[in-house]
């Protein structure tokens, strides 16, 4: 029994992958990946800071390994991501002139999308270009290139890699204001004549607070634009978020806050997590004709970025597999839907 088998007639099932997980010296996690998932998104190795560490100098080694791994194990790769304001190379963050930004933008897309032509199934062409109110984020790309940069990124990617699916990806874009901005953004791409094949709702949600109604309305609204809908970075944060705005060192000193459950997850939380995941997958199944893929942001709790975000050194439990790669109650609830 596995996720990819259970949902094979509904949508593909993905995970984020990092370089350590795919090494042969980690057989347990490797077996789990191969057994459970049929698509993967590189968690970091295809971000611009890693692919183009110095201006004009590309390093494809780690990302190529992931492609090889995917080929070997029948796991399609979703490239992540070409144009994003975060994890940019240092030289790029310091750029002043419009010409330099334009050169970086054109060359990075052409070179990277060209290198992975026919090798990635899809690209998150642009990531997180919106503010919470639906306006465009004031990134270096918006500042120097104007709002047309988004459609232009899609046009350039399509030119470099014509058979690859092209997506826009963001978080909180199931929330009404941001969703409205996202719909506007997608329509602009379509009106420009460039192709967009799908939209990713990242799906970084919180225990007991899954916005099911907003998610359902978003699935319907996005799919009405004629594109695929995907859940691209699914995890459920279980730790309290009430430390927002506090001083970092203070937060780190508070061990109860970084790990309120030193003896493992209490049953009540384990159950709430299972219920939340079950409700989500029920909704995804209800709209399986509109949802192309559901990707978890990590394989097991130990690998999750939420152990280190928004602060380092937390112990989090957001996924379906625990730190020993064992399925949690949430896994059985999700599989039980089939
Ligand atoms: C995260 C990775 O998981 C971390 O390892 C890294 O330190 C920061 O980025 N939205 C995205 C992802 O689109 O690329 C981010 O991934 C999580 C939020």
From TrEMBL:
It catalyses: Endohydrolysis of (1->4)-beta-D-xylosidic linkages in xylans. The keyword Hydrolase applies. Signal peptide: none annotated. Keywords: Carbohydrate metabolism, Glycosidase, Hydrolase, Polysaccharide degradation. InterPro entries: GH (IPR017853), GH10 (IPR044846), GH10_AS (IPR031158), GH10_dom (IPR001000). Its EC number is 3.2.1.8. Residues 1-337 form the GH10 domain. The active site is at 233 (nucleophile). Belongs to the glycosyl hydrolase 10 (cellulase F) family. This is Beta-xylanase. It comes from Emticicia soli. The lineage of its organism: Bacteria, Pseudomonadati, Bacteroidota, Cytophagia, Cytophagales.
């Amino acid at each position: 029994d596995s996720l990819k088998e259970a949902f094979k007639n509904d949508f593909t099932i993905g995970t984020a992958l990092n370089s350590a997980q795919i090494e042969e010296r980690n057989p347990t996690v490797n077996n789990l990946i191969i057994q459970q998932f049929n698509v993967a998104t590189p968690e970091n190795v295809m971000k611009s800071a890693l692919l183009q560490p110095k201006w004009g100098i590309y390093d494809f080694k780690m990302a190529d390994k992931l492609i090889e791994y995917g080929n070997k194990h029948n796991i399609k790769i979703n490239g992540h991501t070409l144009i994003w304001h975060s994890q940019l190379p240092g030289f790029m963050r310091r750029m002043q002139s419009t010409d330099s930004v334009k050169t970086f933008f054109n060359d990075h897309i052409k070179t990277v999308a060209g290198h992975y032509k026919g090798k990635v199934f899809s690209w998150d062409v642009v990531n997180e270009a919106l503010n919470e109110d639906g306006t465009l984020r004031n990134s270096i790309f918006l500042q120097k290139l104007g709002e047309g940069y988004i459609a232009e990124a899609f046009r350039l990617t399509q030119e470099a890699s014509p058979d690859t699916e092209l997506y826009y990806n963001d978080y909180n874009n199931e929330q009404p204001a941001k969703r409205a901005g996202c719909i506007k953004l997608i329509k602009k791409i379509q009106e420009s004549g460039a192709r967009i094949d799908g939209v990713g709702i990242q799906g970084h949600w919180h225990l007991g607070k899954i916005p099911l109604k907003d998610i359902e309305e978003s699935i319907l609204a996005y799919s009405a634009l004629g594109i695929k809908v995907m859940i691209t970075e699914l995890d459920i944060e279980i730790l309290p978020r009430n430390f927002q705005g506090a001083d970092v060192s203070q937060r780190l000193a508070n061990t109860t806050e970084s790990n309120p459950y030193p003896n493992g997850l209490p049953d009540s939380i384990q159950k709430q997590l299972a219920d939340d995941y079950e409700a989500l997958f029920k909704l995804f199944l209800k709209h399986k004709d509109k949802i192309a893929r559901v990707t978890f942001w990590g394989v097991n709790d130990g690998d999750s970025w939420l152990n280190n975000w928004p602060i380092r050194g937390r112990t989090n439990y957001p996924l379906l597999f625990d730190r020993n790669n064992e399925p949690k109650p949430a896994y059985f609830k999700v599989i039980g839907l089939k």
